[in-house]
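Form 7-S
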Amino acid sequence: MKNKLLLLPVFCIILLTSCKVTFITGYDQVLDQTLGKMKRDFNLHFIKLSRTIQDNDPRNQDFVNFQDYYDNLEVDMITIKSRSQSLDKKASIVNEQIANLDAAFKVFINQHKGGLPDRRSDDRHDMRDAINTSIDAITRLQEALRTTGKTDY
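Output:
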């Protein structure tokens, strides 16, 4: 019986030293959550902006009327850029996709600043789809990194 009691701690030590802890690299929960928030906020913003594009008052869609949204967007972009910089080399594709998202937002912002003439039959879904596609690409990469630790790209 005494031998069995001695074997139990030895067995536990062997078991614990043979276990390997592997951290999934490239995934960042804050980055993932911020992207979800950005997508929701952007789509809400786009719904509000679409209403102004389809009315008869071109002043409704003035950029200054939406400044709070764009300020919050800038904060979110700073957050995801800084979070992605702390990821390892395995997530370099995530950094590239974040740069693409940033570029897509800049194009969208410049178009909004330049003015969006009223068009009753065109709510500019192509602009919305471009941003959502960029966000979805990063989200899919983050999900792949979270579940498998690697990307398929």
